[in-house]
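for the writeup, i need someone to sanity check this before i put it in the appendix. the sequnce is what the collaborator sent (i think, or maybe the updated version? ugh). structure was predicted straight from it, no edits. if anything looks off just tell me and ill rerun, i have time this weekend
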Amino acid sequence: QVRLVESGGGLVQAGGSLSLSCAASGGTFSRYTMGWFRQAPGKEREFVAGITWNGINNVYSDSVKGRFTISRDNAKNTVYLQMNSLKPEDTAVYYCAASNVGTGSYDYWGQGTQVTVSS
């Protein structure tokens, strides 16, 4: 069973930056595709960014492309999300998730970390 713990959320003004981290334990981290998702109040959870097991390929939602950067350090069992030029609409609970290579779905989820962007 993989355990994921996010950290780094907080309150920031519009235009500011935050860096989220997600530490994994209990599994072979380098086997997993990792993703970041978010859920704003009253809205469905949405995909934000994903990165392959080797860190070579990544993908972003259109709403964050050019502002957010996903990265990983397999030696530290950690995935990161650098968020720049934050907007109030980025306010949400951010979750990291892990997908076994080849399953096509995210199998493990963290508990989430709150990001609030004030205008």
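The longest strand covers residues 92-100. DSSP finds no helices and eleven strands in the chain.
thx in advance!!
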